[in-house]
């Protein structure tokens, strides 16, 4: 379609074509299944301030408070889970090798020692696998039992529950077996109580609350024992 405008002088065009206005790239809402594989769909779960993350990290060190879900209700995040798990992978891989070195040199100062690169693969598989699969299993189990459950909040809870193993790894370098077991059991108990007590406050109306708490507590303790046996033998 053509439009003939009034005469606007010598520089005026005789006619002009009516065209669609030029815009930026067209934004089309992605389909549900495409949004699942879209990285930008998850950016909102990493949009968290440093002060908020520090507050949640400190909350994980007080396992008896039981108010963690109240603190993350407005903005549960996955930043803590990813950051803590990645930190633990490198901490266990590096300090675990240091611990084996100290033990070997203590028993035989002339013994040969080699850095075990497999610690990195093992730590990544165990830590990331545990932090992702265990909350997922609790989510589907509670949904099956008819209880309220939020997968994002569960991932957030379990992610921050692992933070205590970061500072606890440093004294595990002490080459005293009894002291190592005391440290890892204390850290595991604190982490287990943090998960179990917060689940109790979140699932107040659940009839099978005791079973859920016992399962969460037991799995955290199993993880802590595994950390001691494999990375700080």
TrEMBL record:
Domain Yip1: 65-225
Highest taxon listed in the record's lineage: Eukaryota
Record-level GO cellular component terms: Golgi membrane
UniProt keyword annotations, A-Z: Membrane, Transmembrane, Transmembrane helix
Key word Cytoplasm present: no
Pfam family, one: Yip1
Name the record gives this protein: Protein YIP
